[in-house]
């Protein structure tokens, strides 16, 4: 089945468009858990393999470093290699790496498998341009929003799911479960995923060397990656510090309560298809402005929640602020992805890889900023710093109309 068949009106493939989009969303949600689960498992892994604190810290670092390199070195292959085959082979590497982690007898082998697994998670960003290519431009935002919804659910469920599996069995069981789920997905993708032959005529080296030119020639990519980086900084700043704040008064949550609280953020993922649909209707600009206002207002609510005396009221206010924060963040990122996927079809892989790599960098800045803010001013300063990223995003969209159509 070719992409031309998938978009041909009245064809049998056209009827399968929505199930295929949902398959993309499930794939993104399942695979992304491997990026964030190590953050909750590294203590258990380190003790079972007698790792030093430095080695244990490398587990999360190498996962994310591998992912970053996968975005820049593997995702551009979308513009060069037939997409279905590329996605299946990348997922195959992820399955083998997850099994290697489950069976790793030594720290060095585990760290190598960790890096490969992180790089293979780039399959997520290979799915996005494929889905975008399948859907007409007037529905592209909604389709990307649905895939992003699956991605956000996976991010928010990754830590509690990994913690639950580790509590029931062991940390190794988590990676066995992950490999099994990815194997099931590979079977479904192998059967139902359409083929997409890229149109770019260049060598791999030429694709990589084109990154600076794409950034220079595409202002939409620059502006949308900038605001996506800012909102990702808000996201990581909040979620890096909230687990430190929740055990203290007025919240008083234990480890299980904190894991349950993380599930609240899943509600924000419901905003992604809505944001994409509004973008398709030409309302991207007001939605961008609303998204950044939501981020600022939600963090004010979260800061206020920490000052309340009533435990129930504080938890309700913090929960509301968390949901609104995730709605604002997913709205910006969904609309940003929609904007860049309306650019050059022949460069869609590189555009998506660059976009995610740049906002991934913003996430690292947010985590570092949260660490400093917590040390110097506690929860209130963390919320203020996270809100400041939203303010910068708001100012960007007030002075620029780039990528807001």
Note down, in words, how this protein is organized.
The chain has 405 residues and is mainly α. It contains 18 helices and no strands. The protein has helices at residues 3-6, 12-15, 17-36, 38-48, 53-73, 83-103, 107-120, 123-134, 140-168, 171-192, 204-209, 211-217, 219-245, 255-262, 271-280, 284-305, 311-340, 348-399. Helix 6 runs antiparallel to helix 8 and helix 15 (271-280) packs parallel to helix 17 (311-340). The radius of gyration is 21 Å and the shape is globular. The chain starts with a helix and ends in a 6-residue tail after the last helix. Mean pLDDT is 85; it is low at 1-15.
What's a quick, concise take on this entry?
The protein is 79% helix and 0% strand. By secondary structure, it is mostly helical. The two termini are 32 Å apart.
Brief descriptors of the model:
0% strand; mainly alpha; 405 residues; disordered N terminus; globular
Order of SSEs, N→C?
HHHHHHHHHHHHHHHHHH
Structural class: mainly alpha
Number of helices: 18
Rg from Cα: 21 Å
The dominant shape is: globular
Rounded mean pLDDT score: 85
Helix content: over 70%
Q: Please provide the count of β strands.
A: 0
Query: Strand count, sense and closure of the main sheet?
Result: none
Uncertain residue ranges: 1-15
- Alpha-carbon distance between the two ends: 32 Å
Strand content: under 5%
SSE arrangement:
Blueprint: H1 3-6, H2 12-15, H3 17-36, H4 38-48, H5 53-73, H6 83-103, H7 107-120, H8 123-134, H9 140-168, H10 171-192, H11 204-209, H12 211-217, H13 219-245, H14 255-262, H15 271-280, H16 284-305, H17 311-340, H18 348-399
Helix pairs in contact: 3-8, 3-9, 3-10, 4-5, 4-9, 5-7, 6-7, 6-8, 6-10, 8-9, 8-18, 9-10, 9-15, 9-17, 13-17, 13-18, 15-17, 16-17, 16-18
């Amino acid at each position: 089945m070719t992409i031309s068949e998938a978009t041909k009106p009245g064809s049998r493939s056209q009827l399968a468009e929505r199930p295929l989009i949902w398959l993309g969303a499930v794939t993104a949600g399942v695979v992304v858990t491997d990026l964030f689960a190590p953050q909750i498992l590294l203590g258990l892994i380190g003790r079972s393999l007698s790792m030093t604190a430095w080695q244990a810290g490398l587990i999360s670092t190498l996962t994310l470093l591998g992912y970053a390199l996968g975005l820049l070195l593997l995702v551009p292959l979308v513009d060069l290699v037939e997409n279905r085959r590329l996605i299946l082979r990348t997922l195959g590497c992820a399955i083998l790496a997850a099994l290697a982690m489950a069976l790793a007898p030594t720290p060095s082998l585990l760290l190598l498998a960790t890096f490969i697994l992180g790089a293979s998670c780039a399959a997520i960003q290979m799915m996005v341009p494929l889905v975008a290519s399948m859907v007409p431009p007037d529905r592209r935002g909604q389709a990307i929003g649905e895939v992003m919804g699956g991605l956000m659910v996976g991010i928010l469920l990754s830590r509690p799911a990994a913690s639950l599996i580790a509590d029931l069995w062991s940390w190794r069981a988590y990676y066995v479960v992950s490999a099994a789920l990815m194997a099931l997905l590979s079977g479904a993708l192998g059967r139902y995923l359409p083929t997409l032959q890229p149109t770019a005529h260049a060598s791999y080296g030429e694709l990589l060397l084109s990154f600076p030119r794409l950034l220079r020639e595409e202002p939409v990519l620059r502006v949308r990656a900038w605001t996506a980086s800012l909102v990702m900084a808000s996201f990581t700043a909040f979620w890096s510090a909230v687990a430190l704040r929740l055990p203290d008064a007025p919240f008083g949550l234990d480890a299980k309560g904190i894991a349950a609280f993380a599930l609240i953020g899943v509600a924000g993922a419901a905003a992604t298809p809505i944001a994409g649909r509004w973008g398709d209707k030409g309302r991207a600009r007001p939605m961008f402005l609303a998204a950044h206002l939501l981020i600022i207002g939600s963090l004010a609510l979260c800061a206020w929640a920490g000052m309340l005396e009533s435990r129930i009221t504080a938890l309700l206010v913090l929960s509301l602020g968390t949901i609104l924060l995730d709605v604002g963040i997913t709205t910006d990122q969904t609309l940003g992805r929609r904007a860049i996927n309306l650019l050059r079809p022949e460069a869609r892989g590189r555009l998506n890889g660059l976009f995610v790599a740049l906002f991934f960098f913003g996430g690292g800045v947010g985590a570092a900023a949260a660490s400093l803010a917590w040390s110097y001013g506690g929860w209130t300063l963390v919320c203020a710093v996270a809100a400041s990223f939203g303010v910068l995003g708001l100012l960007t969209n007030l002075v620029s109309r780039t990528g807001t159509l």
